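Q: May I have one protein plus its fold?
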Amino acid sequence: MSVSAEPRLLFVGGAGPISSSRDIVSDALNQARARGIRTHILSRAELLAETKEVTALADEVSVVDPDDPVACARWARERSAAGDRFELVLGLRDTVLAAVAECARVFGAVGNSPDAVSRVRNKDTCREALAAAGFRQPSVRLCDGVGQAAEFLAASTGPWVVKPRDGMASIGVRKVSAPADLPAAIEALPDRELFLVEEFVSGPEFSVEGVFLGGRPRVLAVTEKEKLPPPHFVESGHLLPADLPEERAREIERQVTAALTALGLCFGVFHVELWLCAGEVVLGEVHVRPGGDWLHRLLAHAIPGLELFGLIFDDLLGRPSTGCPAPTRAGAARFLTARPGRLVRIEGWERVRDHPAVLHAELTVRPGDRIGPVHQSGDRAGVVVVGADTPEAARDLARRLAGAVRFTVDGD
């Protein structure tokens, strides 16, 4: 697309309240501004108020619920009828992607179709579509109660995973090793009316980060993931790029790009999760938004000069682009956890925070807080994100710095 007048970006949803969301949305808005693109945020009043420093980066703001695609489409039709135009429509959270698709359709902007967004938003329909296209998938069943879930367990070999149909941040995700564990896992779900039970996949976990350019998926990096021990599935660390043989990394890239194409996706940023099981790629969840947990900072360090959203903006507006470079450095994130109890003191934090290789460091707890068990991403106590020249050096440094932070709780 070639645009001669000043282009405009409709940013559906803006930033969420967590710090990584504010940081990545600030990146997107600043990269748009640097290209002369005017920006307009569409979000709820309370979110706009919680993220004032991000909202201030936009040229315009409108108050509409970004999680309501009907309301957003109505707003878009009204603005279109009044003569407004938006060449670019973007959103960076799972819950707003249906509204992004509807608004892009109203304004005639490039975007993923509502059908494609719906297909990947619900994990069971995404699994069905990938399996039908020939990709290896864990078996899964959509259940509306303990009876259907028990039937799935009886007809398959465990262990299994119980999870929300469209959740995020590991909320409500739990491993089930025996039928006796099933009721407690269902009870922990945020929504027990419709949920998934699927086959547990054993093997190292990875994710793939990339963008769509010219409507085609382009991989930027493969990320190695570490998780805390089950029954919950909370990520404890990331390494980018993953320390993989070149041939294995190429096969992961081939499978992921083919899967995204088969799902009918063509626009935005993607984050695809997968396992390596007996040497084979088993695809997991597909997201048409950036990965969380500060992966955008790891990408920016590993690929010097990368402007993640600038790649998309330049491509859609027909402007010269730097292309899709590969990582030449590495980064790692390590998440902090504390033993349950009342937090008395934190030691070693200042030295870790001020280390010259630290790209970001954040504590989410403070003395006096009551610390609970880690069941989801929001239960972690903090994060240390580092940059280095090689994956091995990044992983070792992140582990060492995280290990230097000591949390003392009642009873220590």
User: Anything to note?
Assistant: The longest helix spans residues 246-262. The longest strand covers residues 216-227. The chain is about 35% helix and 25% strand. The radius of gyration is 21 Å.
